[in-house]
Automatic annotation (TrEMBL):
GO terms for cellular component: plasma membrane. Belongs to the binding-protein-dependent transport system permease family. It is a multi-pass membrane protein. The chain crosses the membrane at residues 45-64, 120-145, 157-177, 183-202, 289-312. Residues 1-12 have a biased composition (Low complexity). Keywords: Cell membrane, Membrane, Transmembrane, Transmembrane helix, Transport. Residues 118-309 form the ABC transmembrane type-1 domain. Its main location: membrane. Gene3D superfamilies: MetI-like. It comes from Streptomyces violaceoruber. This is Peptide ABC transporter permease. It is found in: Cell membrane. GO terms for biological process: transmembrane transport.
Length: 323
């Protein structure tokens, strides 16, 4: 769905009348979007869960200090050396000292590691999404507006990038690069393979807009391509882009978790949810809480952003994916 532009009005002019095909004010659109999101119980729950997860990620150092442990502190008193390092007590050592229990063998606090894992996982997911959206939107809007050779070159580049088995190439690139910042590398690698999808969506929207009346009017008034793209075309595709962006985030979280689970992502002692789940596989029978805690956080994050993205798509781009 494209967001119609608002024609200019002079001082004292009455606002345009509402009716079929009448322009929608951007402020009114965002107020309507917020009202519909908050009015739906599922969307409201997903929005609250996503906001809490982002807050946890932003305040991870403070939360771990409140818990009394850093993610790298060992607590030998919390594990039983005669039982292979399993935590003392029920439910993986949950208690006043360790709110979510401890890791077997090391005795590291699970609460501290989970909240710091949220910081790492969401940082990579949001940064990779930003790369994908900026790159994909730029390529798609250029291909759709200029057409011709520009469209041909960019479309073939999209096809070429999408033809790669992305997960295999991600694993290979992460395995080859050793002495680099893993967070930065994962962000770049995930972003490189993710931009063609949104580029195709934006290209289709730009193709439908480039001959619209308000674009032709701006071109007739002497506006250059940059001004038309930023002032006319881009605002009118913001709805689908925002909806698509929200739907990208859970995929990015899952990709980061998958790479860390396979051992080519974030490496210890830096925690991430995927890495914690991989380490917990060996203990799922003797200490199931070690497996459950990071899995629940990962599940809630993916579910919350997926539901939120679906709701935004239904509001901002109701015709998306339909003939």
């Amino acid at each position: 769905m494209s967001i119609p532009t608002v024609p200019a009005t002079g001082p004292g002019d009455a606002p345009p009348a509402a009716g079929p095909g009448s322009p929608v004010l951007p402020d009114a659109l965002w107020r309507t979007t917020w009202r519909r999101l908050w009015g739906d119980r599922g969307s409201r729950t997903a929005l609250i869960a996503a906001a809490l997860l982002i807050l946890v990620a932003l305040t991870a150092p403070l939360l771990s200090r409140l818990g009394g442990w850093s993610p790298t502190d060992f607590d030998p008193d919390a594990i039983d050396p005669y039982l292979g390092g399993l935590p003392h007590g029920a439910l993986g050592g949950i208690g006043a000292d360790h709110w979510l229990g401890v890791e077997p063998v090391t005795g590291r606090d699970l609460f501290a590691r989970v909240v710091h894992g949220a910081q790492v996982s969401l940082l990579i997911a949001f940064a990779a999404t930003a790369i994908v959206v900026v790159t994909g939107t730029s390529a798609g809007i250029a291909a759709g507006y200029f057409g011709g050779r520009v469209d041909t070159v960019l479309s073939r580049l999209m096809d070429l990038t999408m033809s790669f088995p992305s997960l295999i190439f991600m694993i290979a690139m992460m395995s080859v690069a050793q002495d680099v910042n893993r967070v930065v590398l994962m962000t770049v690698v995930i972003g490189v393979f993710g931009w063609p999808g949104i580029a195709r969506v934006v290209r289709a929207e730009a193709l439908s807009l480039r001959h619209r009346e308000f674009v032709e009017a701006a071109r007739a008034c002497g506006s250059g391509p940059w001004r038309i793209l930023t002032r006319q075309v881009l605002p009118n595709i913001s709805g689908p882009v925002i909806a698509y962006t929200t739907l990208l985030i859970p995929g990015m979280i899952s990709t980061e978790a998958a790479l860390s689970f396979l051992g080519v992502g974030v490496r210890p002692p830096t925690p991430s949810w995927g890495q914690m789940i991989a380490e917990a596989v060996a203990y799922y029978e003797t200490d199931p809480m070690y497996f459950v805690v990071p899995s629940v956080f990962l599940f809630v994050a993916v579910l919350a952003f997926t539901v939120l993205g679906d709701a935004l798509r239904d509001i901002l781009d109701p015709q998306g994916g339909r003939p």
